[in-house]
Amino acid sequence: MTKTEMLLTLLAEECNETAQRASKAIRFGLDEVQEGQPHNNADRIVYEFNDLVAVTEMLKRKGAYLQ
């Protein structure tokens, strides 16, 4: 697997994780904290989105020009 392929795989995973967290927030509310978790859904959406942005930036630096 090339570095670009690895980053694209991470991009897909982060998109899915962000979507899953948004879905949980729709069902249970932004303020809900899952058992065993220290953060609410709103915070977790932000964390997942930041991961998504980070992978996008890595792809841009790699030369996989995302617009």
Residue runs with pLDDT of under 50 for 5 or more positions: none
Using only CA atoms, what is the Rg? 14 Å
- Main β sheet profile: none
**Element-by-element helix/strand order:** HH
**Ends: how far apart?**
23 Å
Q: What would you call the structural class?
A: mainly alpha
Silhouette: elongated
Rounded average pLDDT: 93
How many β-strand stretches?
Answer: 0
**Which percent range describes the beta-strand content?**
under 5%
Query: Which bin fits the share of residues in helices?
Result: over 70%
Count of discrete structural domains: 1
Ordered list of secondary-structure elements with their pairings:
Elements: H1 3-28, H2 41-62
Helix pairs in contact: 1-2
How does this model look, in words?
The chain has about 70 residues and is mainly alpha-helical. It has one domain (about 5-60). It has helices at about 5-30, 40-60. The chain is elongated. About 5% of the residues are buried.
